[in-house]
Every structure is written in structure tokens, then in C-alpha cells.
Amino acid sequence: MTASNATYPKVRSPRVQVEEALYAMIESLKTGDQLPPEPALAKQLGVSRPTLREVMRTLVERGVLVRRHGVGTFVASRFPVLESGMEILESLARLAERIDLQTEAAYLEVEERLATPIEVAGLEFPQGSEVPVLIVNRVIAIEGEPVADLRDIVPLEYLTKEGLGENFHGSVLDVFLERGEPLLSTSRTEIVAEAANVKFAKRLGVRKGSALLKLVGQLYSYDEKVVDYSVSYFVPGHFKFHVMRRVNRK
User: Fold this and answer.
1) Buried (b) or exposed (e) across 92-104, using 16+ Cβ within 10 A?
2) With a threshold of 0.85, does the pTM exceed it?
3) Average pLDDT in the 143-163 region?
4) Where does 14-75 sit in CATH, by number?
5) In the chain, what are the domain boundaries?
6) Are strands 184-195 and 211-221 parallel, antiparallel or unpaired?
7) Are 35 and 73 in contact, with CB atoms under 8 Å apart?
8) Confidence band, pLDDT 50/70/90 cuts, at residue 128
9) Which tops the pLDDT comparison, 79 or 67?
10) How many CB atoms lie within 10 A of CB 180?
11) DSSP letter string over 177-222?
12) DSSP state letter for 236
């Protein structure tokens, strides 16, 4: 009797088959598209719900899918998450450049007017002051996908519409740094989570009520004046902010 030289195809586990099927499905969808509910998807793929749940959990951890509790599971962005430490202030454009991505202003609105009472307070002028300001509103996109809605309120003594320049790409901070004035010192930033209203949901391509990261910032000059009061909304799946903190040994 001679030994057989026959080879047999390697049997793939159900988990691997489900993962391949999900990847194929995701490739046919666009960023932000919602997957079918878990029971329907398990039936469609012919697998048990525990196996499907395990695979989907893995894809969420890999950043391929985004799970929003009480809403569903969605196809995540095709580009990497932008990560930044809060200890250093830098523009979204600079963050993207570090991983070879280009930002663009998908929406841009610039106007000069008097600051509202909330803006006057944010700029730390006495209440009731009439403060002429430059308002710069824009939606920043990466690879055509909206990722942030930014608003800067700058006193006209520091920046005018003409001073913004024709080649403005979305960062007031970068304009200040390139000009070298005003001389910047520190930034104070408040971070909160806020549900997207109709306006921001439409501009950022998310569902109304979706959680957004809201950053309210005050940029100070070396003479301790607020030269830029900003309100920014970020789509959470695209950003990761962290803070390094010292241990108090006392």
C-alpha cells in the first residue's frame, strides 16, 4: 500500500467565514452606512448570534465598525483616527499632515460683526462692551468626509477678513503662527459631550442626537488677552484626545 499524496482544502472556522463575509459586506458600503440589526444579519449570514456578536466586537476594536448604543452598528471611517495630547495646541491640519492626510474646508463662512454677549464673555471683555469681531465658520473634511465643525471669534484688532488671506485653509491658529503675531502663550479648553442638533447633524453627516465632542477654547497672548474664542465640534469616531497627568505624591 502506498501513501496517498492527496491534499485537502483547509477547513475555515465559522468565525473566520463570518469575518470574511462581514468584510465583503463592509467593502460594498460607504462610511456611515448602518448594518442590518443583529438578528437579521445573523440570519442573512447563516450563523449564530453569539458568533456574529464576537466577530462584530473584534471589528469594532479594530476600528472597522462603530457601535452606537441604542442606535446600531455603522461602517467606520476609512482613514485613521487623529490622536492628540491636550497639552499641546495644534491645528487639525497639522494633526492630519502627520499621518499624510489632507484637510479641506468643505464649508466656509467669514463675516465681521459685533460680538454677542456670550462671545463678549468668552473674549473676557466687560459685559456690555461693543467688540467688533471676525467670525470664521467652517466644516473641515478629510477625503471628502466631514469630521469637524469649527467657529473662531477673533477681535478685529488681531485679525480682519482681509488679513485672513485668499489661501486660507481652515486654521486661524496657523494664520497667527505664520504671521508671528499676536505672540501666543496658552490656551484654556473645556471639553464636553453634546448631542448633535439639526444644524450640526446635517453639516457633519451624522444623525440628530448623535454624541459630538465639543471643545470651547480661549487662546491667550503673552499679555494675557484672549485673542481667539473658539467653539468646535468633532465627530468622535475620527478623534482621540488624551491628557498626560502627574501623580500627586503629597
Assistant:
1) bbbbbeeeeeebe
2) no
3) 92
4) 1.10.10.10
5) 14-75, 82-242
6) antiparallel
7) yes
8) very high
9) 67
10) 8
11) HHHT-SPEEEEEEEEEEEE--HHHHHHHT--TT-EEEEEEEEEEET
12) G
The alpha carbon of 172 is separated from its chain's Cα centroid by a whole number of angstroms, namely 18
Q: What is the pLDDT of residue 11?
A: 53
CB 174 within 8 A of CB 94: yes
Cell numbers 452598528: residue: 73
The four Cα atoms 192, 198, 204, 207 give a dihedral, to 10 degrees, of 90
pLDDT tens across 1-55, in order?
A: 444 455 545 555 777 888 888 888 888 887 778 899 989 999 988 888 888 988 8
Q: Per mean pLDDT, which of 75-89, 125-139, 169-183 is the most reliable?
A: 125-139
Q: Which CATH class is domain 82-242?
A: alpha beta
The residue type at 67? R
Give the cell for residue 53.
456578536
The CA-atom distances, in angstroms, between 26 and each of 3, 30, 56 are: 44, 8, 12
14-75 and 82-242: same fold?
Answer: no
The C-alpha cell of 95 is what? 494633526
C-alpha radius of gyration, the chain, whole number:
24
- Taking phi over 0 as left and psi of -120 to 50 as alpha, with beta for the rest, 23 belongs to alpha
- Residue located via cell numbers 502627520: 98
Residue type, 209: G
- Cβ-Cβ contacts under 8 Å for 40 (sequence gap 6 or more): none
pLDDT, position 89: 86
Residue 29, strand partner residues: none
- The whole-number pLDDT of residue 8 equals 47
Give the three-state DSSP class for 148. Answer: strand
